[in-house]
Amino acid sequence: MTIRKVASLCLALAATLAFALPIQAADTQVAVRSLRGTDVIGPSLEPDVPKVPNDRGALPRDFVQQPPLIPHDIRNYQITKNFNKCLDCHSWSRAQETGATKISVTHFRDRDGHELAGVSTRRYFCVQCHVAQTDARPLVGNTFQKSTGLQ
Predict the structure, then answer these.
(1) How confident is the model at residue 151 (pLDDT cuts 50, 70, 90)?
(2) Domain coverage including residue 100
(3) Is 89 known as a binding-site position?
(4) Is 90 part of any known ligand binding site?
(5) What average pLDDT does the chain have?
(6) Which residues does UniProt assign to the signal peptide (predicted)?
(7) How many helices (H) and strands (E) does the chain have?
(8) 126 labelled binding-site residue
(9) d(Cα 49, Cα 7) in Å, to the nearest integer?
(10) CA 16 – CA 111 distance, rounded (Å)
């Protein structure tokens, strides 16, 4: 036998096994289970996507120095090195017109405290610190107590 014939036979055998094994496995009806013993696949395990409430004004903060929370949906907002959708409303030049909160003057300082003409690159990607709120239920119990005297 030549090398081509041996290679062809091996390839044919591999292709036959590749098609035969999945059919055999499908007939066994073995349920897929997680390490915790729960079913992995099923209609009840579809993700419960929480809803983001409509714009509802400034949200109260829970601790000192907490970045303000985003009170509206930001899904599909584009924030890249060349464009920041948040600044369409929250920039100093547009905030009064749109009724949005102006970004803080701290966003115009570099790491050494020098004032800049535009938003600092350290503060340009808003969702590093600011998060949108949803109506999601907590995943785990929480005993956190709010600080008093905050806005």
Answers:
(1) low
(2) 50-137
(3) yes
(4) yes
(5) 80
(6) 1-20
(7) 3, 0
(8) yes
(9) 51
(10) 64
